[in-house]
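New to this. Explain these tokens.
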Amino acid sequence: MQPVFDLTLYNERLESLFSRFQSVQKVGFTGNAYKPGLEGMERFSAMLGDPWKSYPCIHVAGTNGKGSVCSMLASSLAAGGVVRSATASKIGLYTSPHLLDFRERMKIVSADGYEMISRQEVWNFLNEYEPTLDGLSFFEITTGMALWWFARKGVDAAVIEVGLGGRLDSTNIITPVLSVVTSIGLDHCALLGSTRAAIACEKAGIFKAGVPAVVGVRDPETELSFKTVAFAMGTPLIFASDIAAFKGESELLARMDLTGPCQDINLHTVLTCIHQLSSSGGQWPAFAVPSTGNGIPADMAKAIEESGKRTGLWGRWQRICEAPETICDIGHNPPALKENFARIGELQAQGRNAIIVYGIMADKDLDGIAPLMPAGARYILAAPDNQRALPAEDLLQRLTQLRPDLDCQAADSVQSAVRQALDLAQDLPNPFIYIGGSTFVVAEALPLFNESTTI
């Protein structure tokens, strides 16, 4: 019999879990936080009864855009109806990292919105399996919990986001009905490789024999990597960028609540995936999904339009305050920040006064990021409460050397930096605040804003 749920004991147990099994989110890819390889996860999954085998999965890898693509896929498939239901479905959604509550990693999306795994269900999982968790990483535990919960809830399908890379990632124990790779950029190079081609090989490690794979963009630096792995694995390979635009795609893009750079590529990748699923037969019955050149069904278009709201996806060029206009974004590597900073530059050219609250993890490529940072903005630098973070004074010193033209000052904390930004905005005409540089900066900033200002 399960012990009676107690919120105090629940919080104590979670704190113990976080202490015993440190997450990459807190300590980086060191020690026991990151365990490449599948052996431990395979054993854990087997002990859980390989729950992922009870529902079809879509597996999504990539440097940037994974969260948005996963969100749009889950939302659209929930609205479109797959596998068991003719009109709507329950779609499991597993993503990382979380911002405010680790339960954000595990959601079930329906046409009406989403639910996170409940505290009671986390409690039940830990009571049943905690004695068997020794030797696992935090990510392996949360992956197992998600796959287990999805099976218990009877999901019709699940969208599973890769944590890091692909080939050696804990999620790679699954055999999906579709593999997806969003974008390839230089990030986590010490673990994945120093070139985009090498990183593409690691991401393509999720390809499975006979399982179609959709890659967002065909480009000269990574194309051969994808083709080589696909040929070796016997994987049918589709480059979304080779597929013509769907009717109504540009109009849908303009209405989406997931805004920001590269969402056009993410949207086209998602529509290509849906088309592939609708025409593949097997576990996925044909349902009203566009073929190339046809329109997008109204229910799925509406679901994609509201993907952020329906799946609770935060921190993707998200407006969290109207006055002064404040945007947060979790982009943290050069490819993502290049797009974000370019967009800020466009706003500056329109007469907006930019205030940037910025922090960074110590292991990130500041040398590659600094040249991208827009001049003319006011920077308030802060370190989130995380042992991986680069201290604000150190960040100020390095930026002073790398970009002496920038107007920078350091704050004691993210909260202090946000308040300083809001105060400064009162003295500037047409102000615009951007909060970013790290998931952890955004996570600490979000609670300072009223929930009614978020999507």
Observations:
- Residues 285-293 have pLDDT under 50 and may be disordered.
- The longest helix spans residues 263-280.
